[in-house]
Amino acid sequence: MEKSLQDIENEVIDEFSMFDEWLDKYEYLIELGKSLKDYPETDKTDDYLIKGCQSRVWLNYKVEDGRIYFNADSDAIITKGIISLLIKIYSGRTPEEILSSDFSVVDRIGLKENLSPTRANGLVSMIAKIKETAAENI
């Protein structure tokens, strides 16, 4: 049976709780970023660029059977980890599931307060783009 959005969020919270130090959590984010599937160079255009991120983050998606599947890349390793974390949680969900999420998982793992202000702004921009994508595909 498919895991619920809540189950995935709880798994992410559990994974991050294994690390005591934020340095270890950053290492984990970097590893997550490395697990992203290849992003086509042809999609590294302004059309897919998320506005509001200091580093460059591209996000595209496809809709299959009413579910949104995201793919992304970034030119910064921590940022790539952050977007890969969001993809891990929200890719493969219906637009309704995404829009019903309060995205509190990022607060519950302490991500937002442990990022620099510019990265935190980028995180907010990534979440906004995921929500916007969901809203456009209802």
Automatic annotation (TrEMBL):
InterPro entries listed in its UniProt record: Fe-S_metab-assoc_dom (IPR003808)
Domain Fe-S metabolism associated, first and last residues per copy: 14-132
Pfam family, one: SufE
Protein family according to the UniProt entry: Belongs to the SufE family.
UniProt protein name: SufE family protein
